[in-house]
Design goal:
Largest sheet: 6 strands, mixed
Number of domains: 2
Structural class: alpha/beta
CATH class of the largest domain: Alpha Beta
Order of helices and strands: EHEHEEHEEHEHEHEEEHEHH
Oligomer: single chain
Helix content: 25-40%
Radius of gyration: 19 Å
Strand order of the largest sheet: 2-1-3-5-6-4
Distance between the termini: 31 Å
CATH superfamily of the largest domain: Leucine Dehydrogenase, chain A, domain 1
Number of helices: 9
CATH architecture of the largest domain: 3-Layer(aba) Sandwich
Shape: globular
Length: 284
């Protein structure tokens, strides 16, 4: 099984691979843009178990009309060996989420999560956000955290306080990304919020069906922007508590929407926009 079918091969096609992939909202996102711009094209969910990834990647350039794919768990790192080119940001993050089939049939990989994160802050933060606002406190040390660390470093954030339930993972990221990363013990997470200009939760804590995020916000400045990359629920307990104490907040949906823009433009030839109508369609 490769995840492909032969129906409508000649129209431009893209999709999202993962295992599982049923939960993905990417088809709603790209489907909205296709309809909005009156484009002939398809975007499908493509369930690919890990043991089929090699065959899928080998077949991808041979499929008529296929322009590229988004990549989600568990393939973001596993897809790297099958790519002829990987852009510098994706190399630093160590994962890809967007693959484009080049005219010569080779595969180009990129990671638009860092772009999507920063664009969501620019677009959705009440009053805007500037790295000059002060240190960022980042919860988690997984793949999403890696993308956000790269985004914050490139934006000029002076210090990133990295808090993870396993301290060794935070230490490893500090060794990899340099002196602006300041790892701290998970038990000290509340104190690490003092003087921060930004708080980002990249963990699954607080997501529907997951344990809650236990984090006191007493030391967080009231001016600090709070972002939770979880978008199910759209307003997590962290965002609700931050909003109640007066902090500006940004939910996790914007990162998903904005990260899709570069791939859609590469595959379908139109630069799409993130609008309130798009948010409503993806949430529906």
């Amino acid at each position: 099984m490769t995840g492909f079918d032969t129906e409508d091969d000649i129209i431009p096609r893209a999709g999202v691979i993962g295992w599982p992939v049923d939960h993905s909202r990417s088809p709603k996102l790209h489907g909205f843009w296709l309809q909005q711009h009156g484009l002939s094209g398809r975007y499908d969910k493509l369930p690919v178990p890990p043991e089929d990834l090699a065959a899928f990647m080998a077949d991808l350039p041979k499929e008529p009309g296929f322009r590229g794919i988004n990549v989600t768990i568990p393939h973001k790192v596993a897809a790297l060996p099958y790519l002829a080119q990987v852009d510098p940001v994706a190399q630093r993050i160590g994962a890809v989420n967007t693959i484009t089939v080049q005219p010569d049939g080779s595969l180009h990989g990129s990671n638009t999560d860092a772009f999507g994160f920063l664009e969501s802050l620019k677009a959705d933060a009440p009053g805007g956000w500037s790295p000059a606002a002060g240190p960022a406190a980042v919860l988690g040390a997984g793949g999403a955290a890696r993308a956000i660390i790269v985004a914050l470093l490139d934006a000029g954030t002076p210090e990133i306080r990295l808090l993870n339930r396993s301290r060794d993972k935070a230490d490893a990221l500090a060794a990899e990304f340099g002196s602006r990363i300041a790892p701290a013990d998970w038990e000290a997470r509340a104190e690490a919020l003092g003087g921060a200009g930004l708080l980002v939760n990249t963990t699954s804590l607080g997501m529907a069906g997951q344990p809650p995020l236990d984090l006191a916000l007493d030391d967080l400045p009231a001016t600090a922007l709070v972002n939770d990359i979880v978008y199910s629920p759209l307003e997590t307990d962290l965002l609700a508590r931050a909003r109640a104490r007066g902090n500006p907040v940004v939910d996790g949906l914007g990162m998903l929407l904005h990260q899709g823009r570069p791939g859609f433009e590469a595959w379908f030839g139109v630069a799409p926009a993130v609008t309130p109508e798009l948010r409503a369609a993806v949430l529906a």
